[in-house]
């Protein structure tokens, strides 16, 4: 079979790989959809050292059907034909982090990540431990399941870190796929969302996904505009998804405000002497746990949220080079490979 690989110089190479076979405790998933994530671009461009290699199949937003089941996998865990999402990390299964659904934070340092330390979903088939599987609800498409596997799930994870957001004002910085997901989910959770970006077409999409107000921070004075919108109490909550707006985010955060930074690479700086009277809570979030991935999917179904509309482009595997040339421009929405 062919899989997408990144040499790290802004190119895509389709390489031949043997069809995977499941070992004990493993399953082979037939890919139906494999999403393109903004973090792919770090590896595509070679901007960071990510511990993988040019022989690693990319794609960490996989979704599909169980194709084959290895020895020792119980039928109630996985059976051929099951529609499944994949939590794209796994660890030792023994430590506190793994047992609580956070294998990416494995205390023993055994965390494996699809597309980095092991093959990902940009290929017709992928082999993964059966314990990484989560049911794909009948009300969701494979594309929706792929998005929830990272991009949308990352926004959900950040919102869960912020806590009770219902009835509060939340500013979401960045309206790419993760930011749009944050806008959509937060609106459904009862927050008043102010969407911020420098791209008017993305801001138009933010309105469609539930933003109460939109602000182009390249065209107006951000602090003045947000002060007019947020009122006397100031901004209560911030979700920063762009990875470049740390200073802007803190400049508008009000007293007792909470801010969650999920955009990469991201830098956040402040002088305690100047800010300590504001009693801020500053936090980060790393994707989501296995439990929260499932809850995010259930929430999307319960509220009929249009996750599929995050995608503006769909590609076949043999269009991989064209797909990533387009995605590298970051001028449009989300892309997905469909099989």
From TrEMBL:
GO MF terms, alphabetically ordered: oxidoreductase activity; zinc ion binding
SUPFAM superfamilies in alphabetical order: GroES-like (SSF50129), NAD(P)-binding Rossmann-fold domains (SSF51735)
Cofactors required: Zn(2+)
InterPro entries, A to Z: ADH-like_C (IPR013149), ADH-like_N (IPR013154), ADH_Zn_CS (IPR002328), ER (IPR020843), GroES-like_sf (IPR011032), NAD(P)-bd_dom_sf (IPR036291), Zn_alcohol_dh (IPR050129)
Protein name (database record): Putative zinc-containing alcohol dehydrogenase
Ranges of residues in domain Enoyl reductase (ER): 8-337
Classification via SMART domains: PKS_ER
Pfam families, per the entry: ADH_N, ADH_zinc_N
Family: Belongs to the zinc-containing alcohol dehydrogenase family.
Keywords: Metal-binding, Oxidoreductase, Zinc
């Amino acid at each position: 079979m062919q899989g997408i690989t990144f040499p790290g110089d802004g190119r895509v190479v389709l390489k031949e790989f043997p069809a995977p076979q499941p070992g004990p405790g493993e399953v082979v998933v037939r890919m139906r959809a494999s999403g393109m994530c903004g973090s792919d671009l770090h590896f595509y461009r070679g901007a960071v050292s990510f511990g993988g290699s040019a022989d690693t199949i990319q794609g960490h937003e996989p979704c599909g059907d169980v194709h084959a089941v290895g020895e020792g996998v119980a039928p109630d865990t996985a059976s051929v034909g099951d529609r499944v999402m994949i939590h794209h990390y796994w660890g030792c299964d023994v430590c506190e982090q793994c047992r609580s659904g956070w294998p990416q934070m494995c205390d023993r340092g055994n965390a494996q990540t699809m597309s980095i330390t092991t093959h990902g979903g940009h290929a017709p088939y992928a082999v993964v431990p059966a314990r990484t599987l989560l049911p794909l609800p009948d009300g969701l498409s494979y594309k929706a399941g792929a998005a929830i596997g990272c991009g949308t799930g990352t926004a959900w994870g950040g919102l869960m870190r912020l806590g009770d957001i219902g009835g509060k004002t939340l500013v979401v910085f960045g309206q790419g796929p993760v930011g749009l997901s944050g806008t959509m989910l937060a609106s459904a959770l009862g927050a008043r969302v102010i969407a911020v970006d420098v791209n008017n077409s993305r801001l138009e999409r933010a309105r469609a996904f539930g933003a109460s107000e939109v602000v182009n921070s390249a065209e107006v004075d951000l602090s003045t505009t947000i002060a007019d919108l947020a009122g006397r109490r100031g901004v209560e909550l911030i979700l920063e998804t762009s990875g470049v707006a740390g200073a802007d985010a803190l400049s508008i955060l009000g007293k007792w405000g909470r801010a969650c930074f999920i955009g990469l690479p991201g830098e956040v700086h402040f002088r305690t002497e100047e800010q300590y009277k504001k009693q801020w809570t500053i936090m980060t979030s790393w994707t989501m746990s296995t439990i929260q991935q499932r809850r995010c999917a259930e929430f999307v179904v319960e509220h009929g949220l249009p996750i599929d509309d995050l995608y503006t482009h769909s590609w076949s595997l043999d269009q991989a080079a064209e797909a990533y040339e387009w995605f590298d421009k970051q001028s449009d929405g989300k892309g997905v490979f469909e099989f």
